[in-house]
Amino acid sequence: MKKFLRINMADKSAVFSAPPQGMELFGGRALIAKILNDEVDPKCDALGKENKLIFCVGLLADTPAPCSGRLSVGGKSPLTGTIKEANAGGTFAQYLFSLGLKAFIIEDQPADDDWHIVVLGEDSVEFLPAEKYLGMNNYELVACLQQEFGAKISIASIGCAGERGYRNSTVQITDPDGKPARAAARGGLGAVMGSKKIKAFVIKEKGNYRGEMLDKTAFAVRNKTYSKALLGNHVVGGLRALGTAVLVNVTNGMGILTTKNFSKGTFEHAEAISGEHIAELQGDRNGVMVHACHPGCIIKCSQIYNDADGNYLTSGFEYETIGLVGANCEIKDIDAIARIDRMCDDLGIDTMDAGCTIGVAMEAGEIPWGDGEAAIQLVQEMIDGTERGRILGNGTETAGKHFGVKRIPTAKGQALAAYDPRGLKGTGVTYATSPMGGDHTCGNVIGMPGDPADKEGKVELSRNAQVAMALMDSLGMCIFASFAFENPENIQLLAEMVGAKYGGDWDIEKLMGLGVQCLSLEKNFNRLAGFTEKDDRLPAFFSEEALPESGNVFDVPNEELDAALPF
Amino acid sequence: MKKFLRINMADKSAVFSAPPQGMELFGGRALIAKILNDEVDPKCDALGKENKLIFCVGLLADTPAPCSGRLSVGGKSPLTGTIKEANAGGTFAQYLFSLGLKAFIIEDQPADDDWHIVVLGEDSVEFLPAEKYLGMNNYELVACLQQEFGAKISIASIGCAGERGYRNSTVQITDPDGKPARAAARGGLGAVMGSKKIKAFVIKEKGNYRGEMLDKTAFAVRNKTYSKALLGNHVVGGLRALGTAVLVNVTNGMGILTTKNFSKGTFEHAEAISGEHIAELQGDRNGVMVHACHPGCIIKCSQIYNDADGNYLTSGFEYETIGLVGANCEIKDIDAIARIDRMCDDLGIDTMDAGCTIGVAMEAGEIPWGDGEAAIQLVQEMIDGTERGRILGNGTETAGKHFGVKRIPTAKGQALAAYDPRGLKGTGVTYATSPMGGDHTCGNVIGMPGDPADKEGKVELSRNAQVAMALMDSLGMCIFASFAFENPENIQLLAEMVGAKYGGDWDIEKLMGLGVQCLSLEKNFNRLAGFTEKDDRLPAFFSEEALPESGNVFDVPNEELDAALPF
After folding, report:
1. Of A144, B200, B246, B261, which sits 20 to 30 A from B40 (CA to CA)?
2. Residue B210 domain flag
């Protein structure tokens, strides 16, 4: 992965180059943090021409490391105002590095109103007119592009949400089946892509670059052991059988399943939205419960969810969506939730923020609690672009403020995930202090030893998790591949795998240093954007209102939060 | 003015106290800056319980100094996120100090949904239920309160805008005729009042406090000379004859009359919206062209604007409203503009931000340019609280972003005034660098010597104006009373007037030090709220798009802007 590509949308120029000196050990999320720190004014308008949109792969993307084919997308977020990296499965990362590209960077924006499809080749960039695709959502768009360029292409695209600049817009990525079901979902990067008037990136076929490795044998030996350890982890078994939806019954049992706009921690209809129920349903409907979101994934927690007629409805139907669209809105109809998942992927909005958005709309009395059909109608309004739909498309914080809701479950403007921070305080610390805003993928500590509702030690737990997740996001590996970290010997193996590819002596400390460096760059960007430790807080209601089942409040002291990421 | 009053809306307590030590020489805007720095977290939610809403009078409020009866209202702004002081005429300031009160501070907010009318007396505070007044706009509300408490009362109130939390909400103040036509307009402080569930403050009658003065004779002698000099200033004559609308033909002639959402500097129908035309119309309609907005005003630039039938329509109908609702929206029908002024006062929204909001809505194609009736309908939507109306009620920045408009004429989220910064660069520097966000009253340099479109020296010009305006706002004096500053001897007189009241030797430097101190406190608050010098900028289009008539762009270098307020 020798090349960088810079695409300027003002003059439609494209320049391939060697990566700048000293960038060899920056990949994925850390590479995005480095480029944004070096090149983008943290105070810029996220939808203005000064922002840059970066697509890149991780440090181990071009290796057989398990689950290492994640695509990182980054820029300044129009949702949070912070630095932002969102990563996704799908095929695009592998296609990208096969062109010999480590990263491509979209700069500036057109002065006119002409939209483009940008076709990337090994040494070429084509800017094709996109007029005929405007107004299309992702499923139709992808079908048309596959019609035009062939079924083997890989696509990163936006729906109408990104076109319209909804601050909760995603970049959707085609999965191994060619469906736009994987998303660089969080933080509104689809709106940044739309601000640059790019409807889709297309890679027509894989290139010839196959990666470089200093010591293939050393890598292969360690990779085999690491992968075996990962597959032996007990959580991976549950994920493989039921997808991430395995968590519904787990969190409900813990009293942290986000219910009725984070007012309760248990949902009386949890069983109806559980992974177990989905597996049963999909057994009858010929769905697929073991499915890889990207080539190279060995965990396979994705699935194909068919509707009652046995036809494809959606894929990548995750616990977070089910918890936030389902329990959080008291919707018990799993097919309605799946329908909303599909509609969100199609429109190109983050299902998590959308679930919390529907939750605050319900709290405001816009639609009744638990009414799946009314929720579908709200998403339809986002698709149709009604006045209310455009507000909802801007995410939970904007919608909550618009409707005058006091209890808005966000951190730095981004909706929290489906784990109530009062009963899972380590993840609460992550929500509050992550440079990304409320984001469980930056350091979720569910399943870690100790009482999850005891505040003691949770800052350290979150810090370690945040460093490890920043590392995985920089390697381009799925965060679930870190389950092998339960045994420190496996971390050492991973360190030596990095060494086998890039050279040098690597130990756990040096490996984790990649995560620390990433977080440090991200915090620096946010600081220059105006964020201070006072922004590293959860909404007050988590401290003031106890979870009714347990009486737990979020009580990690502010001084401890301030010390969470001392980089 | 010995007393402070703290009103806690959580437990409905009220505590009178002596001002804290060392606060003697803080008044008006500076007192607000001091209290907010001492007591309010700059990162707090402006509509949350941590914010405080402060009403106070200036240092010379209880003296015969000309135009010294301005009321300052302050808090953290929900519109800009900055510190905010908005001052207004009307009778409330005089009523307030007659109770012996220098300031009252509203703290916390109710846990329940009960709204209150807060009645202030010399040693008493009553919390009366406000249910029967909810949903009323200011004109109806004030009439009902006058019915209940008598015609002599003074009122500070909010309309439905403040009730609903519109981020462009005002606090309206009754004028000497008992009409709610004066506004602490900018920055959404009406929403802060609404967040504390206060519909109106009422003072039933003046109290017995008459002020204290160390050396009455020394004050009176200097005051007489100062007042005479002020009345002799040539600008004051124009203001008295035509109101601030005298500026329409002036700015149009200079090519800086904000036209068609700041895309032009001249309006072909300027004459139809000019002060000269208004004076002619009002002559026929028995309107009043020389009218004091508060007792003690000797300039009398306010007026009473009657409709075509000779009935009262509005008062305090300012150049800024006419420029931003009129020229900026290409509306030439002065009666339609006056109608919008009345509707805005009634609903309780800032006419300036509303004018720019309608401008961006027109740019987005929501209604046609120049269509006064359609603009009235948009304001009616804000009154009715339709989905679109609620977006518009949140001001220009929110509406512009919602509609996807690129050219949004705001600084720090607040709409600019009716002087295009490309042709009046000193005021442009003020827009960019004022701690209040885009605000001409913080340092307008129109009429100052030199070429207004030449960038040289404009930072110093703005700095001096900003210091002087911060001084006037702290004294409680109308900024127009600074016209006497054209002769430095008058500034010395004003310094000695402060000395005659408070003691000590005062010279120009010490007097201006009050302004510097105020700005320094405000900048400190904003810094802790996350603002940096990168926020001290105008929207890029002012640098990139030339005014068509003159070819002028805003070209004051960023490094100079960074040095504008080195306090």
Report:
1. B200
2. no
Does B402 contact A391 at a Cβ distance shorter than 8 Å? yes
Query: Concatenated DSSP letters for A369-389?
Result: TT-HHHHHHHHHHHHHT-HHH
- Three-state secondary-structure class, residue B71: strand
Residue type at position A82: T
CA distance B372 to B271: 17
Dist. CA B515–CA B509, nearest whole Å: 10
Write the CB contacts of A368 (distance below 8 Å, at least 6 apart in sequence): A362, A374
Residue of chain A whose Cα is closest to the Cα of B400? A165
Q: With H, G, I as helix, E, B as strand and everything else as coil, classify residue A102.
A: strand
Nearest CA in chain B to A530: B530
Has residue B10 been placed in a domain?
yes
Question: What is the number of structural domains in chain A?
Answer: 1
Determine the Cα–Cα distance for residues B296 and B61; give it in Å rounded to an integer: 10
Domain residues for the domain of A195 are 3-203
Within a domain: A213: no
Strands (DSSP E) found in A295-451: 302-306, 312-315, 410-411, 414-415
Longest dimension (CA), chain B: 62
Q: CB neighbours of A63 closer than 8 A, spacing ≥ 6?
A: A211, A213, A219, A223, A497, A501
Give the type of residue at B286. N
Between CA B518 and CA A90 the distance in angstroms is 56
Are residues B87 and B29 in contact, defined by beta-carbon separation less than 8 angstroms? Answer: yes
Q: Which of A197, A401, A523, A545 to mutate to test the interface with B (most CBs of B within 10 A)?
A: A401
CATH number for the domain that contains residue A27: 3.60.9.10
Identify which of A68, A99, A469, A55 has the alpha carbon closest to the alpha carbon of residue A292: A68
Cα separation, A436 vs A283, whole angstroms: 38
In a domain, A41, yes or no: yes
Answer yes or no: are the C-beta atoms of A302 and A292 closer than 8 Å: yes
Q: Do A540 and B48 touch (CB under 8 A)?
A: yes
Q: Which residue of A has its CA nearest to B536?
A: A43
User: Reduced to 3 states, what is the DSSP secondary structure of residue B133?
Assistant: helix
Q: Which residues contact A227 (CB under 8 A, 6 or more apart)?
A: A66, A298
Asked if A395 is an interface residue toward chain B (Cβ–Cβ < 8 A), one would say no
Report ipTM for this prediction.
Answer: 0.87
- B336 touches B372 (CB < 8 A): yes
Q: How far apart are CA A181 and CA B479, in angstroms?
A: 60
Please tell me the distance from the alpha carbon of residue A513 to that of residue A534, in angstroms, as a whole number. Answer: 26
Can you tell me the distance from the alpha carbon of B96 to that of A545, in angstroms, rounded to the nearest whole number?
39
Indicate the pTM of the whole model.
0.93
Q: Which residues of chain A neighbour B531 with C-beta distances below 8 Å?
A: 530
User: Is the separation of the CB atoms in B354 and B325 below 8 Å?
Assistant: yes
- The token pair at B201 is 């403050």
- Nearest-CA distance A234 → chain B (Å): 43
Task: For chain B, say whether A394 makes contact (Cβ under 8 Å).
Answer: yes
Q: What is the pLDDT along chain B (567 residues), one digit of tens a residue?
A: 579 999 999 999 999 999 888 999 999 999 999 999 999 999 999 999 999 999 999 999 999 999 999 999 999 999 999 999 999 999 999 999 999 999 999 999 999 999 999 999 999 999 999 999 999 999 999 999 999 999 999 999 999 999 999 999 999 999 999 999 999 999 999 999 999 999 999 999 999 998 899 999 999 999 999 999 999 999 999 999 999 999 999 999 999 999 999 999 999 999 999 999 999 999 999 999 999 999 999 999 999 999 999 999 999 999 999 999 999 999 999 999 999 999 999 999 999 999 999 999 999 999 999 999 999 999 999 999 999 999 999 999 999 999 999 999 999 999 999 999 999 999 999 999 999 999 999 999 999 999 999 999 999 999 999 999 999 999 999 999 999 999 999 999 999 999 999 999 999 999 999 999 999 999 999 999 999 999 999 999 999 999 999 999 999 999 999 999 998
